[in-house]
Specification:
homodimer; alpha+beta
């Protein structure tokens, strides 16, 4: 593995040196907090994985979709989401694979909370 | 930007097809939830940014450190952390830059909660 930062990491890291005005740039970052029906947890995991793979592959403005479940409470799922900007997020909401995902998981998701965030530093290794 | 998945994304995505036994692989993923002293928020942001940049650059087992603050509650900071495995996390806790960061922010952090997670899907674009 090369020790190279991925684009979004490098962009934020470069900007964060310049202070908050630049750090609060266009990137749209949110954390989704979901509670899943225990009986449908494996089905939900399959659906969210398929959706994330597709969105990253086909949408140029979808940069990161990290889905995890809490070890102590596996039905509590969090998705860390980074979009190029607000327009990329809006486009994502209209994408056919997103609509398919929403329809598929509708009966699986007991609650959903979206936490909007301001990025401080998005550092990651690339391949 | 090339539509190529970063290493950790590709690794998890490849494994998630094989089912939960494989998906619960070695990668160590946690979310840190912090509350920061409002008077020291900008200092904290600088410290966490510097720490993340250094850890990603010098530690082969530190794959992702994404720090964000909640828009509605900017003193609430979350850090999404991915390590190659538990040993990489343990090594990180002993790294000089981590110890420096902990000492620097000790008076800034009002509370810290670590949420251990099981990755479902870690999909991201690379450069």
């Amino acid at each position: 593995m090369k020790v190279k930062q991925v684009l979004l990491g490098a962009a934020i890291l470069a900007s964060s040196v310049s202070g908050p005005a630049v750090a609060q740039q266009a990137q749209y970052v949110q954390i989704a907090e979901l509670e899943i029906d225990p009986a449908q947890l494996e089905s939900y995991k399959a659906a969210v994985s398929e959706h994330a793979e597709t969105a990253i592959r086909v949408e140029p403005g979808v940069l990161v979709l990290f889905a995890v479940s809490e070890k102590e409470n596996p039905t509590h799922v969090r998705v860390f989401e980074v979009y190029r900007d607000i327009d990329a997020y809006k486009a994502h909401l209209e994408a056919p694979h997103f609509k398919k995902y929403k329809a598929t998981v509708e009966s699986m998701v007991k609650s959903l909370k979206l936490v909007l965030t301001t990025p401080i530093s998005l550092a990651a290794k690339s391949q």
